[in-house]
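Supplementary Data S3. Sequence and structure tokens for construct A.
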Amino acid sequence: MLPVGPQSGKSLRPWQGLDIPQLLKQFSISPKKTLGQSFLICDHVADKIVAAAGHDDVAVEIGAGTGMLTVRLASHYKNVIAIEIDQRLKALHNMITADFPNVVFVYEDFLKWIPRPTEIPTVVGNLPYYITTPILEKVFFQMKPKTMVFMVQKELGARMVANPGSKTYGALSVFVQSFTKPEMLFHVTKNCFYPAPEVDSVVVKLEGIYGYEEVVDPEVLEHVVKRAFQQRRKMLRSGLKKEPLLLKKAEEAGIDTSLRPEQITVEQYVRWATLVKCQNTA
């Protein structure tokens, strides 16, 4: 059973202004490159992320790390489920649960973790670049949160919020915008992490707009979008000439096939994928 009540009366002071590198050294923990570990060390960034997430009953944190976000979420939410794959951090996390009994740490690969309850209102996390899409798929389709606040690499964030016609608009843009309303919140320099990564990050907020999944299979949508963007510099009719069925369904969806993939809106891709799904199930 989860503990009850946000710990709004609990002072965050012991958890503010921490020397994260020294804290890790105290617990004999060295960041692992294989896990993509770069720990957040800037209090003001953690404060802004949690403020953007708001208040609700349950929050899931992906990649708790040293607990910079965890303790702040505990002051806003009745229950916090913090997922962390690195069990070396347990001793540090025990200090957090001693102060914040409404936090539960789960030591598991997030992609293998089974959420209970399955619908969780808020998800927060610093997403590793190399598995961002699988994480988003799990969050969108298994958890269906109302609010998501993610820190991602700057380039990735730009792609998530990109508009049709821009150079950064692509398959990820269509996928994210088919199921959420994304908003770029703020920039985070690489100096706010230990060890400092090679690139800066951004924080994006996603508001769930679920419903498309009732008419289009996400796998079909992914297939259509990936095929379209395979040759993004070409017109659809040229890039898909070896896939006449996809081209036919694009025309049936009212899409001008003289357009390039980045000129097609999210709504048009969804309509196109819906017709492909109907063809497959006919």
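Construct B, processed identically:
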Amino acid sequence: MGSLQAGYGLDGDGYIMSDVALDKIDNVYFTCIRESVEELVRLFPHQLHSVYVYGSVARGEAVAVKSDLDLLAMFNDTLGEKELVELKAVTKVLSRKYHTLVRDVGIAVANYDYVVDPANYYEQAFLKELCVCVHGEDLREQFGLYKLTSEIAISFNGDIHEVLARTMIRLEAATIDEFKILVQNFARKMIRTYYSMVMVRSQIWSTRLHEQSDVFIHYFPHKEPIIHTLQKWIEEPPINRELVLDLFQNEGKWVTTNFEREAHITS
């Protein structure tokens, strides 16, 4: 794993050191971020609590056109079906408008009461360690420090079975352009899920796909060809549906079967 030794990404007491920050966000993205926030405020003036940026933009590692702008909108109430449709429509408009800057504008949804509930500390860990507040009250300030635990690993990527099922259905019906985006997104999800399987035993914290890949390969070297294929597909997604569906189905089944057991291994 080279420089990726136990303790990487952690402080001296074993707590996660966040690699996101407001001052890491390239100025070129702020126009899109501001307009996204304005649209959220316009649509949900009373429900919107705060907005966060996460992913490569928040790490300062985004690549123009290739990277997504990932936003998390925190709401005081649960959005209804009609409101979710409106939100999806806004993301499509924003994605088209800023297509020369970002691959896609995505807005995930979170519920305030759920996130601040102490029982859901893993949701707080996601916000604290992976997100940057760009609008409203910054909830991260009230959350503590976090160590790498199986609960966090499972909460971050333990939904792989559900995501696989949804993705397979969508891949079957997708246009070529939609197909490519779905392939890229699920390839990323697979790598992050693989990493989550070995995160606790490695005691290595990273949100970078190439580092997550290296950590996983250290424990499962026979999966290296699969990882390299997924990395290639993120850069240049294939259009061969049979090839993609076969790999995703087989690997998705393997991950689903082994994920929770592997995520609990501590050494």
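The longest helix spans residues 176-202. The beta strands are 48-54, 69-75, 105-111, 131-136.
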